[in-house]
Design a protein that fits this description.
Layout: E1 3-10, E2 14-22, E3 27-36, E4 42-43, E5 46-47, H1 50-68, E6 74-79, E7 85-94, H2 103-125, E8 133-145, E9 148-150, E10 160-171, H3 172-184, E11 188-194, H4 195-203, E12 213-218, E13 223-229, E14 232-239, H5 243-254, H6 258-271, E15 273-277, E16 283-287, H7 288-294, H8 296-314, E17 320-324, H9 333-341, E18 348-350, E19 359-361, H10 372-383, E20 387-393, E21 396-402, H11 408-414, E22 430-434, E23 437-441, E24 450-453, E25 456-458, E26 469-473, H12 485-489, E27 494-499, E28 502-507, E29 509-512, E30 515-517, E31 528-532, H13 537-543, H14 548-551, E32 557-560, E33 563-566, E34 573-576, E35 579-580, E36 592-596, H15 603-610, E37 615-622, E38 625-632, E39 634-638, E40 641-643, E41 654-659, E42 687-689, E43 692-693, E44 705-708
Parallel strand pairs: 3-19, 6-11, 12-17, 17-18, 20-26, 22-31, 27-36, 32-41, 37-44
Antiparallel strand pairs: 1-2, 2-3, 4-5, 7-10, 8-9, 8-10, 12-13, 13-14, 15-16, 20-21, 22-23, 24-25, 24-26, 27-28, 29-30, 29-31, 32-33, 34-35, 34-36, 37-38, 39-40, 39-41, 42-43, 42-44
Helix pairs in contact: 1-3, 4-10, 5-6, 8-9
């Protein structure tokens, strides 16, 4: 069973109509018609005069209808490749606060990148026109995680995720003007393709697209370029130079009007020579070699322009170049282009219709490259057509080019909904101080957008079809942190000790803004939180408000003879488990802590600590017995007043040891230390010192022997 296909190639200089029959395995061309434009109604492949172009289209259509007794209602056409725009864009996202990335998150990133490319293109084109571009497809070039290329971002963790895409855009005016011209000719657009895709589909099958090949369609007004590599079409481009520049060069050199120069170009291409008559009436015959030499600068200029654009798109020379279109027959163009691209001559070639596999002919037609694109349009428009579909997005009708399996993401792009604004914003973070360090508590993540398709909840990669109704609601914003102190510090350890035989449970103390708090306290913005851990004796006494025990026991200072001195023996003693300790001693579970009072300090204790004495002693023998005499030689003044050795001292007392005027021991001092009744001493009593007679007022010295008889 066969199917008839009607295709139109609406070019700058002419319109080509083709009738094909398609079977399961091949295509057969049954007829074709070529009509040139009578006016300059097309410029660089773009319809500028819809009425004039529609007249030519109608002539082609009616001729085929009359010849084959059929009625043609639908037609396959192509949008000019020169209208396509490609943009490479990279978008980055901080994922440090959102460590796990889902497939939907990545799709949103890709769509954000497409929107950025669309925005960049709008800014770029604003300098030239206000043409509005629609995305007709995009491909991901690579993903990156923290600057390193990665195969997939799903469930990855890091600081920054990155996606680079290449997006293709088509101006609305191109398609709208094309539809308008067809409607005036009583035709409906059955399917739409893109001219570069049409030519590539018939010459470079998918299996060959892993090769880096350039296809150049040289028409009358422009040269369209498409590049393949790594299994796909990587770039499109256009050069505003083509066959008309060659025609003008012939016209200038041989003094011909434009139409005559165009005829000469065709004749010399077909027969290798042509007869021409210039505007002065001189007639001559020229060969193709003569023509090539005469217009060599124009040929070289065309080759240079094409080569520069190919290298700009490809970043290097491709492996090979295929030329199609009528302009590709320009003499020696392949050689010039090979030189410019630094390729061997056999790597740049013109491809004709005989290169198309599974193609048959029921009609005699030119075999050259001019019919590659029309045939490609007929085949590609059926194999990979572009349709219009209408979708309602948030109560607004949006039309899309159905160039692939469209998804909700494509609808969001077409509707101009900002993808990056659909996600809810993160909740406001809290800034707090914890133990004198700044800490940021992030708010909760924003929620993804809520998307419903025909009233059913779906994801952004859900497929769509004509007539679907789509509603998109912005995701909920995140909330402020809801965090307790326990969630920051964890479980607070506790243990028991004994203080003066009373049990105490020790646990770190929580203080918020200088006030005690418990672990369930919900943190607020700008809180100043302190975790006061109880580790030492000092920490414990502070926690039970008995720090004065340490403060009052910190030192016992006296000023002695104008110099301040510390006397630790007069302080309380800290004992842990009966062993001496200090305020910095670390406490352990079940420790027993106590303060032991030391001796109450007196002048006597002070003299003992100073190793001082206020007395002078003298040893003698009295009546054969050893006697020690003692005499005070210093007075003790406390805060300027005389005190005895039993006076109690307090902190910061001022003590002076004042020397009494020096006196020698005399005989009568003995009677303070021996028992003798002086009333019994009468005349005739013998008093001797070392065997010599003495009186009560005689001085005595160490080890003297005293006798009284």
């Amino acid at each position: 069973m066969s199917e008839q296909i009607f295709a139109l190639d609406i070019g700058t200089r002419s319109v080509i109509g083709l009738l094909l029959h398609q079977t399961d395995t091949s295509y057969t061309i049954t007829d074709y018609v070529v009509r040139e434009h009578t006016e300059r109604s097309m410029l660089d492949g773009q319809i500028h005069d819809v009425v004039s172009v529609s007249k030519v289209i109608k002539e082609v259509k009616e001729q085929l209808e009359q010849k084959h007794q059929i009625v043609l209602r639908e037609v396959c056409v192509a949008a000019a490749g020169r209208a396509l725009k490609t943009k490479r864009t990279t978008i980055k996202k901080n994922i440090s606060l959102q460590p796990l990335i889902s497939k939907e998150d990545i799709l949103f990133m890709e769509l954000s990148a497409v929107q950025q490319a669309q925005y960049d293109l709008a800014i770029e084109e604003r300098e030239h026109s206000l043409t509005h571009y629609y995305c007709v497809g995009y491909s991901v070039l690579q993903y990156k995680l923290d600057q390193d290329i990665i195969g997939s971002l799903i469930d990855q963790q890091g600081e920054q995720a990155e996606v680079e895409i290449i997006a293709t855009f088509l101006p609305k005016v191109v398609v709208e003007s094309l539809i308008a011209a067809l409607q005036r000719a009583d035709l409906e657009m059955e399917a739409l393709t893109l001219e570069p895709i049409a030519a590539i589909n018939v010459l470079i099958p998918t299996s060959m697209r892993r090769l880096n090949v350039a296809l150049v369609d040289i028409g009358a007004g422009t040269s369209d370029i498409a590049l393949t590599d790594t299994g796909t079409i990587t770039a499109y481009g256009m050069v505003p130079k083509a066959g008309d520049e060659i025609t003008e060069a012939i016209s200038d050199y041989y003094l011909l009007d434009f139409n005559e120069a165009e005829r000469v170009k065709r004749d010399i291409t077909a027969h290798n020579e042509a007869v021409l008559t210039d505007i002065l009436g001189f007639k001559q015959t020229i060969s193709i070699e003569e023509l090539a030499t005469a217009i060599k600068p124009a040929i070289d200029e065309l080759a240079s322009a094409i080569a520069e654009e190919v290298i700009a798109l490809n970043a290097k020379s491709p492996k090979a170049v295929m030329l199609v279109g009528g302009g590709s027959l320009t003499p020696h163009l392949t050689t010039h282009l090979a030189n410019r691209l630094q390729l061997p001559d056999n790597r740049v070639a013109i491809r004709a219709t005989d290169a198309i596999s599974s193609l048959n002919f029921d009609v005699e037609m030119p075999k050259g490259p001019a019919f590659i694109t029309p045939i490609g349009i007929a085949i590609a428009a059926k194999q990979n057509p572009i349709h219009y579909i209408s979708i309602t997005v948030n109560h607004r009708v949006v039309r899309l080019f159905d160039v692939k399996q469209l998804t909700i993401g494509d609808c969001l792009l077409a509707a101009g909904i900002h993808i990056d604004k659909l996600y809810g914003l993160p909740g406001m973070a809290y800034m707090i101080r914890f133990n004198n360090q700044r800490i940021t508590l992030p708010g909760s993540y924003g929620r993804p957008p809520k998307i419903t398709l025909n009233n059913e909840l779906v994801t952004v990669n859900e497929s769509i079809k004509h007539g679907d109704v789509l509603n998109v609601e912005k995701g909920e914003n995140g909330k402020e942190p809801d965090v307790t102190i326990e969630e920051i510090v964890g479980e607070l350890e506790q243990f028991r000790i004994y203080y003066n035989n009373q049990p105490h449970l020790l646990q770190a103390e929580l203080v918020v803004n200088d006030k005690k708090a418990n672990k369930n306290y919900k943190i607020q913005d700008n809180d100043d939180i302190e975790l006061k851990e109880i580790n030492t004796v000092h920490d414990f006494l502070h926690s039970i408000n008995q720090i004065e025990n340490l403060i009052n026991n910190k030192s016992f200072i006296l000023e002695v003879d104008g110099k301040k001195k510390n006397f630790p023996p007069f302080m309380k003693q800290i004992l842990i488990n009966k062993h001496p300790a200090t305020p910095d001693t670390i406490l352990k579970p079940e420790d027993r802590l106590e303060f032991v009072e030391r001796k109450e300090p007196t002048v006597y204790h002070l003299l003992e600590e100073l190793n001082e004495s206020i007395y002078q002693t003298l040893k003698i023998t009295f009546n054969g017995e050893q006697v020690t005499l003692q005499k005070q030689v210093k007075n003790v003044l406390r805060n300027g007043k005389k005190v005895d050795i039993h006076a109690i001292l307090t902190r910061d007392d001022k003590i002076e040891l004042k020397l009494i005027e020096q006196q020698h021991f005399i005989f009568q001092d003995i009677f303070k230390f021996v028992s003798i009744d002086l009333t019994e001493i009468k005349p005739g009593v013998e008093i001797k010192r070392n065997g010599q007679p003495a009186t009560f007022l005689d001085p005595i010295e160490e080890n003297d022997e005293i006798t009284i008889k």
